[in-house]
Hints:
Strands 6-8-9-11-10 form a five-stranded mixed sheet. Helix 10 runs antiparallel to helix 13 (358-368) and helix 15 (446-455) runs parallel beside helix 16 (473-483). It is α/β, with parallel strands linked by helices. Helix content is 44%, strand content 22%. The N and C termini lie far apart (129 Å). Residues 222-226, 399-404 and 496-500 have low confidence and may be disordered. The protein contains 17 helices and 18 strands. The protein has helices at residues 3-13, 21-31, 51-57, 61-64, 75-79, 82-93, 137-192, 196-223, 236-250, 272-288, 307-312, 335-339, 358-368, 423-435, 446-455, 473-483, 519-530; strands at residues 35-40, 95-103, 109-120, 126-135, 232-234, 255-260, 268-270, 294-305, 319-328, 372-378, 382-390, 415-419, 439-443, 459-465, 488-493, 501-502, 505-506, 511-514.
Amino acid sequence: MPFGIKWLRRQREQPKSAPSAEEQFRLLVEGVADYAIYLLAPDGTVTSWNPGAERIKGYRADEIVGQPFSRFFAPDDCAAGLPERILETARAEGRFEGEGVRVRKNGSRFHAHVVINAMKSAEGKLIGFAKVTRDVTERVEAQQSLQRIQEQLAQSQKMEALGQLTGGMAHDFNNMLAVITGAFQLCQRALGRGEQDKAQEYIASGLDGAKRATDLIKRLLAFARQQPLAPTALDANVLLRNMSEILRRTLSGDIELETVLAGGLWPINADQSQVESALVNLAANARDAMPQGGKLTIETANAHLDDRYAAQHVDVPPGQYVLIAVTDTGTGMSPEQAAKAFEPFFTTKTDNRGTGLGLAQVYGFAKQSGGHARIYSELGHGTTVKLYLPRSAIPPADSRPKRSENTPLGSTRETILVVEDEPRVRQLAAEGLRELGYSVIEADGAEAALNLMSQHSNIALLFTDVVMPKVDGRKLADEALRRRPGLKVLFTTGFTKNAIIHGGVLDPNTHFIAKPFTLEELAHKVREAIGR
Length: 532
């Protein structure tokens, strides 16, 4: 075989030399079609362009090299200086990563995931930026679509819950109104026959129906987290010891009550009456779950809910809490029932007992107080409700003033200005205050009230509704106090989301009574506001 042919064959059989690292990188960049990979000069001018950038952004290399990279931004972003801020971040920190909307050559927009790395010389001088952009429009649109579906589902669930809530409310209120209207109709007939004793019985029945309606409203407000709270520093152990007799009366004789109180318990920041109400509700629920008897255990403990726990539960701030756990040995609930236990009007009772608002009230109170509630249950083994209330930064008071058992009365020397735009409500409040011994003047709004104040210098208390047309009670009180510093003010309303209540919690030293109120409640609140 001739020498020349042998040499050519050997050349074909020998492996070709591998490309350099620079050539390999160039081939890699040019071969990537899913990423826009290009370089920028220190001032943001495009200096190189790969096929992926042409595919994603629509520009050929000869159209874009030498142009500022701000061309890819929407006009609003350019006007806000976003391109400059992005490069400044990469320059200062060495790297920028983020997502945003960018603009193609044809004007269409897309969602981009962007990484920019600063490139520096051996001496540390900035020589440019390496930029990688990925089109993530499909992912972002899929996430947005999923979010819309979730929002629609949540709205559907809200409407279903609202339907359950209004249906339950209508049923319970109809029953209570039937008691009230029936009692007063019978009272009228009895009075017509001169049967005073019968009339008193019917009045008592009507008042009982009204009280049940009032209690239901309070439970609904607690569930809605709109019940006005007056939190103070409390010792939960002392509170439980003082409640032991009430809790024993709530339970039947064949249920054993045990309290396990932790030593060194932190004080809690909560409304005492609402804590007591929650515990009575939980005890009543436990009683109904143990028709054959059993054991109710109430425990206290200090608890720290960490970041991990908070991340797993909605609306639970991490921090220090006091745990009050109420455990029964009753029938328990299935996982499906336990998941719905805090919903309004949900009940496992089959004999029409209760309103189905007990646990909903407990949950609403805990949330409004900045705390947390959890339920654990096993069918046939019992239930534990855990109430977490926030730790107080101040110690509880050593003693609390005890309310007199007698209704406190006023004097005709003490004049109260009643401001209420509803005539019947104003009349009843005024008559009640006169019954308690006070002198009363009435106004149907802020303008009339301020006129009366200029005519009467001996007003001891401004008793005003909060929600009124034109000028509300908060603004009226501000103006009244400006004219007469030191004037005592007592607010009332049936609607609690208003100017005097911030986040559902009463401002310190604000005197407030929720509608509807009894004559005894009014007597104590007025005396408290005026001072003894």
